[in-house]
Amino acid sequence: MEELVREAIDHLMTTNRQQPDFHFDPNHMTDVDLIEMVCDWTAMSQEFGQDGGSARGWADRSIGSRLHLNNEKKRFVYAMIDLLDSHLNYDAE
């Protein structure tokens, strides 16, 4: 079973455009790819009860270590996190 899970994760990471591993260089990700990645991170944060449901923790832990984005892409990702967080926080009130 462990091998099947590993294969499924590898398949996900290499066949979905919102996954940085899909791209030779994550800086080739489109804005839509990055938005979908932020949404995935938000969903994971909410599922695991991390970082108040925000993608910010995933971004902070990934960008610069596992995920090497240029400054323009990094600013875009954090702007999308801010935008999504503002809607999530508004809906919770």
Short description:
The chain has four helices and no strands. The chain has 93 residues and is mainly alpha-helical.
Number of helices: 4
Per DSSP E runs of 2 or more residues, the count of β-strands stands at 0
Taken in chain order, the helices and strands follow as: HHHH
Q: Measured on Cα atoms, how large is the radius of gyration? A: 14 Å
Descriptive account of the structure:
Helix 2 (31-48) crosses helix 3. It is globular, with a radius of gyration of 14 Å. It has four helices and no strands. Helices cover 66% and strands 0% of the residues. The model has no long low-confidence stretch (mean pLDDT 84). It has 93 residues and is mainly alpha-helical. It starts with a helix and ends with a helix. The protein has one domain. The chain has helices spanning 2-15, 31-48, 56-62, 71-92.
List the helices and strands and how they pair.
Blueprint: H1 2-15, H2 31-48, H3 56-62, H4 71-92
Helix pairs in contact: 2-3, 2-4
Provide key terms for this protein.
93 residues, mainly alpha, 4 helices, 66% helix
